[in-house]
């Protein structure tokens, strides 16, 4: 057993022709019993090449419970598994890897100070000299390998097996492997720079870029996406926004790409409610394409290119969570922008009408009447904007920024790769849970509210030429029902006792600062339609 442990934890090699060891390959039954030594060697090299890939790290090996001795705890076996996989990564660097300048021994003793240079400051990490085809000796010095070997030999040559000494040695070896893997991923591969880039683009920290992108693509998004060209159509405003807002010093933007993940998404309302009346601009490539609803643009997503060894940290599941949060945030920002744009357009028209009225007061009664009729609409719009603004502020400041600061403190203080993976998972879980994406009832209500806000904006833009009072009343009634339901669910005792509670209370306090939401939710307003006098109280 100690010979197998040495092979696994010193060299990262699993040689177990007779399936005696408790660390197993997932595909260990392929070609294990070849009689030809040459065939065994060739197959082993093929397996080694395969095992050093991303799949090898995540699913290439496992602990066989049937072969695990009763005197080795499962926790210790998992430490052995991790240490061997880490040694394999360190001893088999990717040939095309481009890593940052190694840290000197004197700098290595000052962990917090060293990490401060990567964490501190408002800009991206400073560029450091790069090195390609880095050697395994640089990632795992021979002295460290000899130290691991010496610990295992001491246990092997002991006259008795001491469980406590064995577990202590395994823990020390695991720490060595985890620290060197931390050095590789965090320092050499610039983990914090990539974390900052994911925050900038997937969590919309670069607000100027996405504001510009949404403004450039606004006219495009007023029509349903064309199934064959939607992604290419979006690339033009995406690149224009980049030219206007992204500086040359941002070396991470080239890793970001725009995608349309799916098509044919239909809203819960009729197509007539969602689409603009200019049907001549709709695609005419068959029924499936022409029925795409406007919220097909909700499938906009980002992808991020990750190189070795960061694939060990940014797994497909991790990037999928980032995409999920991004799609939620970009819908929210688009809704907020449309509400602002509708207000600006109408105020421009209102000022023009008022100017005409001042010039000709005798014939200005129609203008005044139109202004009076439109006032209830702007109260509804302000009510919508109030909810969307507070939700956006809550997510961007109370959730994302606070959780980002917690993650940064962990990155600064931790020197263990597995700890960082755990901290990052907690960070993503907090983003998802505190944004209510894990509560189906809340996320569905929020999705409906954003759609209603967009429908309202499109309806009032046509109000002068094609007034549709019943449609606007229906939208207003549905919005009030949804917003009241949202407030009722968020203040429920089930959510109040969860990890969301501290920040959730702040969000509810902003929403209900004058008891408007609470009064409405209790049913004081018997009518679903927002009353102008009551709505004015919220203003």
From TrEMBL:
Keywords: Cytoplasm, Cytoskeleton, Microtubule. It is found in: Cytoplasm, Cytoskeleton, Microtubule organizing center. Residues 191-517 form the Gamma tubulin complex component C-terminal domain. It holds the Pfam family GCP_N_terminal. Residues 2-186 form the Gamma tubulin complex component protein N-terminal domain. Residues 94-119 are annotated as: Disordered. GO terms for cellular component: microtubule; microtubule organizing center. Residues 95-116 have a biased composition (Polar residues). It comes from the Eukaryota. Its main location: cytoplasm. The keyword Lyase does not apply. InterPro entries: GCP (IPR007259), GCP_C (IPR040457), GCP_C_sf (IPR042241), GCP_N (IPR041470). The keyword Cytoplasm applies. Belongs to the TUBGCP family. Gamma-tubulin complex is necessary for microtubule nucleation at the microtubule organizing centers (MTOCs). Component of the gamma-tubulin ring complex (gTuRC) which mediates microtubule nucleation. This is Gamma-tubulin complex component. It comes from Urochloa decumbens.
């Amino acid at each position: 057993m100690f010979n197998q442990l040495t092979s696994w934890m010193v060299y990262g090699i699993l040689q177990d022709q007779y399936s005696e060891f408790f660390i197993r390959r997932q595909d260990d039954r392929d070609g294990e019993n070849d009689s030809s030594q040459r065939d065994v060697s060739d197959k082993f090299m093929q397996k080694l090449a395969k095992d050093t890939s991303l799949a090898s790290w995540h699913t290439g090996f496992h602990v066989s419970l049937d072969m695990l001795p009763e005197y080795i705890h499962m926790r210790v076996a998992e430490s052995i598994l991790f240490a061997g996989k880490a040694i394999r990564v360190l001893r088999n660097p990717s040939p095309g890897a481009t890593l940052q300048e190694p840290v000197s021994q004197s700098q290595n003793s000052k962990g917090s100070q060293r990490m401060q240079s990567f964490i501190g400051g408002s800009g991206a990490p400073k560029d450091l000299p790069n090195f390609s085809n880095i050697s395994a000796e640089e990632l795992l010095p021979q002295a460290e390998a000899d130290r691991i070997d010496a610990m295992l030999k001491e246990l092997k040559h002991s006259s008795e097996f001491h469980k406590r000494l064995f577990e202590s040695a395994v823990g020390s070896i695991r720490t060595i492997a985890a620290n060197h893997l931390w050095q590789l991923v965090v320092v050499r591969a610039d983990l914090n720079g990539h974390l900052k880039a994911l925050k900038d683009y997937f969590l919309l920290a670069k607000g100027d870029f996405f504001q510009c992108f949404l403004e450039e693509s606004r006219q495009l998004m007023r029509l349903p996406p064309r199934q064959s060209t939607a992604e290419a159509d979006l690339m033009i405003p995406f690149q224009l926004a980049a030219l206007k807002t992204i500086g040359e010093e941002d070396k991470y933007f080239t890793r970001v790409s725009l995608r349309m993940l799916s098509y044919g998404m239909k809203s819960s309302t009729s197509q007539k409610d969602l689409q603009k009346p200019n049907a001549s601009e709709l695609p005419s490539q068959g029924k499936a394409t022409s029925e795409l609803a406007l919220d097909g643009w909700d499938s906009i997503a980002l992808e991020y290119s990750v190189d070795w060894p960061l694939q060990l940290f940014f797994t497909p599941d991790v990037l999928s969570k980032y995409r999920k949060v991004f799609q939620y945030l970009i819908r929210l920002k688009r809704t907020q922008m449309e509400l602002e744009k509708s207000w600006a357009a109408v105020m421009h028209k209102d000022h023009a009408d008022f100017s005409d009225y001042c010039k000709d007061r005798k014939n200005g009664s129609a203008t005044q009447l139109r202004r009076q009729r439109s006032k209830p609409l702007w109260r509804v719009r302000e009510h919508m904007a109030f909810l969307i603004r507070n939700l956006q502020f809550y997510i961007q400041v109370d959730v994302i920024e606070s959780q980002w600061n917690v993650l940064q403190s962990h990155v600064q203080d931790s020197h263990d790769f597995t700890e960082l993976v755990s901290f990052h998972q907690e960070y993503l879980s907090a983003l998802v849970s505190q944004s209510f994406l894990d509560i189906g009832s809340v996320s569905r209500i929020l999705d409906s509210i954003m759609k209603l806000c967009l429908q309202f904006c499109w309806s009032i833009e046509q109000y002068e030429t094609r007034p549709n009072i019943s449609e606007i009343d229906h939208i207003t009634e549905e919005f009030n029902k949804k917003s009241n339901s949202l407030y009722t669910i968020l203040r429920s005792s089930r959510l109040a006792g969860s990890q969301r509670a501290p920040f959730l209370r702040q969000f509810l306090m902003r929403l209900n600062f004058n008891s408007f939401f609470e009064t409405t939710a209790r049913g004081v307003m018997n009518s679903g339609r927002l009353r102008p006098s009551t709505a004015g109280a919220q203003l």
